[in-house]
Amino acid sequence: MEATQKTMKVTVLRYRPEQDKEPWEQTFDVPYHKDTSVLEALFYIKDNFEPSLSFRWSCRMAVCGSCGMMVNGVPHLACKTFLRDYEGKDMKIEPLANFPIERDLVVDLSDLIEKIERIKPYIIPDAKNANMPLNKNFKQTPMQMEAYLQFAQCINCGCCYAACPQYKLNPKFIGPAALTLLYRYNVDNRDAGAKLRAPFLNSEEGAWSCTFVGYCSEVCPKHVDPSSAIQLGKKMSATDYVFNMIKPEH
Amino acid sequence: MEKYQFDVAIVGAGGTGLRAAIAVAQADPKLRVALISKVYPMRSHTVAAEGGAAGVVRDDDSYQKHFEDTVAGGDWLCEQDVVEKFVRQAPEELYQLEHWGCPWSRKPNGDVNVRRFGGMKVPRTWFAADKSGFHMLHTLYQTSVQFPSIQRFDEHFVLDLLEEDGECKGVVCYDLQNGAFRQINAKAVFLATGGAGRCYLFNTNGGIVTGDGMALAYRHGVPLRDMEFVQYHPTGLLGCGLLMTEGCRGEGGVLYNKDGYRYLQDYGLGPETPVGQPKNKYMELGPRDRLSQAFWNESKKGRTIKYPLGEAVHLDLTHLGEKYLHERLPLICELAMTYSGVDPVKAPVPVRPVVHYTMGGIETDGNTATRMPGLYAGGECASVGIHGANRLGSNSLVETIVFGKIGGDAMAERAHSLKDFDSPELARQAEAAQKRALDLFDVKGTESMSKIRHEMGQSMEEGVGIYREEESMKKTIETLKTLQNRIKNVGLTDRGRVFNTEWMNLIELGYTLDVAQCMVHSAINRKESRGSHQRLDGPDGAYKQRDDVNFLKHSLAFKQEGADEPRIELSPVKITTFQPAKRVYGAEAEAAEAAKKAKEAK
Amino acid sequence: MSEVKSFRKPYNPPVKKMTWWLENPFYIFYMVREGTAVLALFAVLEILFGIFMLALCELTPNQSLTGVAPYVWYLQNFLGNPVIIALNVIILVSQLFHAVTWFALMPKAVRVFMNKNSTELLPEWVTKAALYLGLVGATVVILAVAYLTK
Questions:
Q1: In angstroms, what separates the C-alpha of C108 from chain A's closest C-alpha?
Q2: A6-107 adopts what CATH topology?
Q3: ipTM greater than 0.90, yes or no?
Q4: Which of B60, B145, B171, B556 suits a disulfide with B569, CB 3.0-4.6 Å?
């Protein structure tokens, strides 16, 4: 602990579904030092002022994806955001935008989860590799891995959905994380399932709903760059379209 | 209460739970699987594992070597038949994950690469950079979604097991989002709830690692085995305790004390190996218990480095260079920068030992079955018998998938042998569990939950830390006893049913306290030093030594009806081919091996 | 025992369909970037108008001024109008802005490896440099054609 502790005014959006008609704000004075994260500020509030404050958290090291929330209007992981970076300002913590608020800082993520699971996020091998014995690996050079590895770093925190205005305006949009995952599997050389995922990629709710705002990439705490994956997905989708025009299947 | 009928109910959706669910689904798609977790699957703490998973693949390696490393690493407290099975099945499971899409780091030719790890004779640790657990968990989760027979109950918190005629017949859980209780009848119940690192204050674990499954089994009379063996990871980030993977040292990282001296050579791990040339089982690649103990001794000698946040030693990676570090240890670089303000490329990272893993857990046989028919356990919450008194790094990630698979297969078999069932007794138990949970809202006490949690963590560190003494353990026993009483007087501030984390945390804390008691009672009963359990006391310091005559045995912690403390028993250890010997590393190990060879040659 | 199925009452924050983009500087910037496309439309209409006026002309081998009166009007009275000149300057600036911001994003849509055996990606500046080179090249060609056919 540092000897000189400062204090910051931290406002938290509260919503208790069984009591409140709509969300309201509650402000606390939170002492902090140079290593205090927003998550630790919330611990402090829960332990000292408001045990009833609810928020999701677990790993504290920016890998479990539980603690996505809005800090001064910008989606962040609470555990990877520090009060020191807001020195001289007040802080306002709200639940992730663009999701229904379940209680306090907890949002309903079921739409995100459903989309991630919808796009067939698993290896679909071709017939030749379907029964590869369990003493042998697929050949995958470091370069072949590099083609998708960055897009496999998503922790499903939902920050990109909170950043996406297209998702805000059209909740049917499959959205950044799920489309990124789709692209990740399509470019994995072990996978042969691109055709099965094409309906999602090409659909109106798919890649073409993205207008390349680019804010998802800006806020992504793991530098996955979903907007890049979606643009690359558009290229894939366009190629697919042209190819199908020239050579109709079946 | 809503009631469901399943063939298999799996509690916990981390590496083990997901692997088990997939195994059941593949064994028979007609079997209905309930996968219950208090968080979404990808939040499970498997996600935070960094270093990798051990499996024999190299030509210069063998199952025998992996077996011997594991058993010696566990100070001979391992079930040797189970270890044998484990090392044989490990590569298969790792290849299986590869086929499912796990991005294991590769060699230039496209085959899977392996790295060095502490206590392992040969490099055999499969790794996905330093996010091995993350990639394993996401691969398993994503793979699992293609099986329609797996029905997930995300953000469902298990309150109790259902038991009839001595058999486990289901669980009762609480839907955090909807605020509803659910009774789930199942022919087999699998506990895969992870460890209990949250018994301690300073740990690498996530907030969810509260020992829930261990406490559930314990409360139903199933013993917790070898709970005194709690692993301190030697390199946790100073301050927050976040993990700096053993892979750091596997890749060539070295440890210095305040004099810039590689102190490990003073603790039977030398001679010093040249910087940048790590050697298996030497120096920084010794086992975790030895390294953590070395820190403790350095601290006693006043040779650690004092920081405002406490004492530390330096983990130096600077000689590895930016490019290599960013390729092999990207997460470590990110974590050190973010949480410690140190760039490992440029400066050494201050680290210290931190509670990391519970070697012990729910007693099971080699097929994950507990002594209660119908109840199975796997992963960190179980003591299947492979870690003994000290787990080797990278054995636990592979444990999750090996015993997830074994458990899944075993449960599928059991499910086939039984018909669907229901009874008023199960409903009665479910109602009772619901009432117990709801009654917590009516407690009018003034105790503070966060104070109890803090005092428990503090007391555990003082009593059952790296080195232990009767005196301090007794104090911890007393503290935990009073905390068990105080927790009954925690008044909740809020009666809300949707996502009431205050309420859930209170029930979790109850679980954690039970597990903490098992740890300290097992520890005080083990009057010897073995693996991660090191004592400083005894007549003439007798407990400082390993005592195979009296304690080459497992500890079992049983719940005692009516008493608020566990009863400890001992049970035999299965030894097949590898007789207990002195556990040696560094040059001493080489000398011992040479002597053994010479003897055999005679 | 009667158990309510759910205690949920999720709150859906209202969506401001028209003014959402005012909430965040990043969105405002995005709207400005996209807004410049409207001005590009004006430039296109302007050129189409010119072609239309040219089509109205009676083109004969011995060109008389009266025959090309519509196009002359287009050049002198329309394009020469100070308001139109000012508008065209604004369009030029806005299109340059659009180009700069668009080029800044383009590397995201390009993922090419340095060579066959490398795990290193083509650096972003290469993509951007190629785009700027294209922009400058096209401008030079247009100006050269205009100069040579004067």
A1: 4
A2: Ubiquitin-like (UB roll) (3.10.20)
A3: yes
A4: B556
